Amino acid sequence: MRDGHKTRAVLLNNWEATGFDFDFNRIVGLYDPAKALGVELFLLDDGWFGNKYPRVNDHAGLVTGSQIVAVAGRLAPLAAEAVKRGLRFGIWMEPEMVNPKSELFEQHPDWVICQPKRELELQRNQLVLDLTRPAVQKFEWNTIKKYFKRAGHFLCEVGLATVT
To answer: Could you tell me which residues come within 8 angstroms of residue 29 by beta carbon, excluding any fewer than 6 positions away?
Structure first.
């Protein structure tokens, strides 16, 4: 484990406080109380992405890809507000899962793990992407690289990083 000998940061994940029901003000409203409790890292969880199928419940929108890359810039103001309060800012990702009601599944239903001639087996209204497939691996790595490149740019925009 990277830095496994170091003490881990005290983390607050917004999920239990907000579920899918949040906006900028509701998230920022969690920062000061979190800081007062000793939180060091704020993690923005589920519900911040989705274009064609917004992530307003656990039945749609869970997917890596263009949705994640597209919203990365909109997260800059949230990150900036966290940093103003002395908090680090993190973002939840679950790249190995997809909802049947998502653009990725519409485009590549063959990318999920399934048994021939059997119904798809949902786990928490999600399907598991078959990461043994080279096309899925390539898609995932490209998505993650694009995401972190865009995330790096928004961190520069709020003065948290420099891109070299």
So the answer is: none
